Amino acid sequence: MAIKRVWIEEGCIVCNACETTCPEVFNVTEDSCHIRAEVRTDGKQTTNLTERSDLSGSFGDELADQIQEAAEGCPVEVIKFE
Ligand code: SF4
Predict the structure, then answer these.
(1) 1 domain-assigned
(2) Could you tell which of 69, 78, 80, 81 is best to mutate to test the pocket of ligand 1, judged by most ligand atoms within 8 Å of the CB?
């Protein structure tokens, strides 16, 4: 199943697990986790909580399994996708 967009809700504990699982999409910062600009249609690098920017190109297909794995592995379940 392709993923259209992914974002981070509030409450990230910066554990780094998602970036280890899928470094193409997740960039863990000092206080949260960002969705990388390179995989977003809006080219911003934020949590994507308010923008809800779509994944660009074929990333939603190619990285669907890793994104899902990262979401399942997040200890506080703040990685959301649709
Ligand atoms: S796995 Fe979850 S808690 Fe850990 S850095 Fe990623 S979003 Fe934050």
Answers:
(1) no
(2) 78
CATH, residue 50: 3.30.70.20
Q: Is the CB of 20 under 6 A from ligand 1?
A: no
Instruction: Encode pLDDT of 32-79 as tens digits.
Output: 999 999 999 999 999 999 999 999 999 999 999 999 999 999 999 999
Is position 75 within any domain?
A: yes
Contact by Cβ (8 Å): 79, 18: yes
Whether the pTM exceeds 0.85: the reply is yes
Ligand 1 centroid – CA 71 distance (Å): 8
Ligand 1 pocket mutation, candidates 76, 77, 81, criterion most atoms within 8 A of CB: 76
Count of domains forming the chain: 1
Residue pair 1/82 in contact by the 8 Å Cβ criterion: no
Domain coverage including residue 22: 6-81
